[in-house]
Amino acid sequence: MAIPVVDPARYDQQLEAKRERITRDFARFAPPALEVFPSPPSHYRQRCEFRLWHEGDDLFYAMFEVDPEDPKNKTVVRLDEYPVASRQINDLMPRLLDALRDNDLLRRRLFQVEFLTTLTGEALVTLIYHRRLDEAWEAEARALQERLGIMIIGRARKQRLVLARDHVWERLAVGDDTLVYQQVENSFTQPNAEICRSMLSWARDVTRGSQEGDLVELYCGNGNFTVALAGNFRRVLATEISRTSVASAKINLEANGIDNAEVGRMSAEEFAQALKGEKGGRRVSEMALDDYAFSTVLVDPPRAGLDEASCRQLSEYERIVYISCNPETLAENLETLTLTHEIHRFALFDQFPWTHHCECGVLLVRRD
Question: Is position 360 annotated as part of the catalytic site?
């Protein structure tokens, strides 16, 4: 892993390089002009994790710089600040270290710290240990929680001690709405909150005028897009394999007063089988698939993208909204999808400035 070097004065230059690369790499699909959504040039990540390095009486945050020619060769890099992380995380970093450095009970065999923050100022800190946590640890951790005005979770092998709650509540302004999201510790959430707002606004825009049809969403996570898009459709059925994410998605639908969306725990592959009538059972029966008239599918797959069978399944829908965290696998999938659909909208979301990573959004519409 390369630790990003943040230089706000050069932000437009690095974003332009990404725009040129994505435009060049996808030119063969003849997409419309690329829509580019910039990130804040610094302090954009709402969640981060660090190793905690012990050197005698000293403590410091660390990451590993990996030699690209020899992945086993790792260099420990000391981090006294981290411009990639939110300002709240940067404010907490030294305050937490000062408190831990002077407390033998809290620092003993502590090896990792994870921060989860929100735009509205909530902070959840997870302390991860190579030892069992006892009542004495809990008493000290509760005092620290009060002192820093944060929430703390302690983790060790087969242990998870939640001192306040295991989640934060994020509030994102999207258009005229403020969307509310429960974000659970140690589960996936979009790390760049401002880019997340841009993605949700873009997805809303490209699916407007869909009230007569239904949306099916694959890999819905905690309902990030489900919450934002429900108002554009008659009904929404979202699927996700993670139990934690499914539970959180249902909470987020309720928190936003959404009553036309359902979330089912099922993998994308299982759902494809259910649509073809090749899979039955209680979960399939509860979905009542015959009640839907799906006009649009939204897919937000992992970096590996979609397999050939999943691409063929997507090709059966009138419109496809594809959110991708890996342009390489997106391009591979578009080789199949553009046989039946053409690209009507194409977007670049700079989710991870100062890295080669790009997040893309594509709207595909079935050819006449």
Answer: no
Burial of 6 (0-12, 13-18, 19+ CB in 10 A): middle
Per residue in 313-362, pLDDT (tens digit) is 888 899 999 999 999 999 999 999 999 999 999 999 999 999 999 999 99
Q: Of all helices (H) and strands (E), which one includes residue 74?
A: strand 70-79
Catalytic annotation on 325?
yes
Residue 118, Cα to own-chain centre: how many angstroms?
13
Strand order in the sheet with 159-162: 70-79, 58-67, 47-55, 110-117, 123-129, 151-156, 159-162
Residue range 121-139, pLDDT digits in tens? 999 999 999 999 999 999 9
Alpha helices of the chain — where are they, by DSSP H? 11-25, 87-101, 104-107, 135-148, 193-206, 224-229, 243-255, 268-275, 282-287, 308-314, 327-337
For residue 255, how many C-alpha atoms fall within 13 Å in the half-sphere facing its CB? Answer: 21
Token readout for 223 is 């309902």
Cα separation, 151 vs 338, whole angstroms: 47
Q: Quick one: tokens of 70?
A: 């020899």
Handedness of CA 22, 23, 25, 30 (dihedral sign): positive
Burial of 305 (0-12, 13-18, 19+ CB in 10 A): buried
Ramachandran quadrant class, 221 (left: phi over 0; alpha: psi -120 to 50; beta: rest)? left
Catalytic residue (choose from 196, 220, 359, 360): 359
Phi, psi of 246, rounded to the nearest 5 degrees? -60, -45
196, 311, 325, 360: the catalytic one is 325
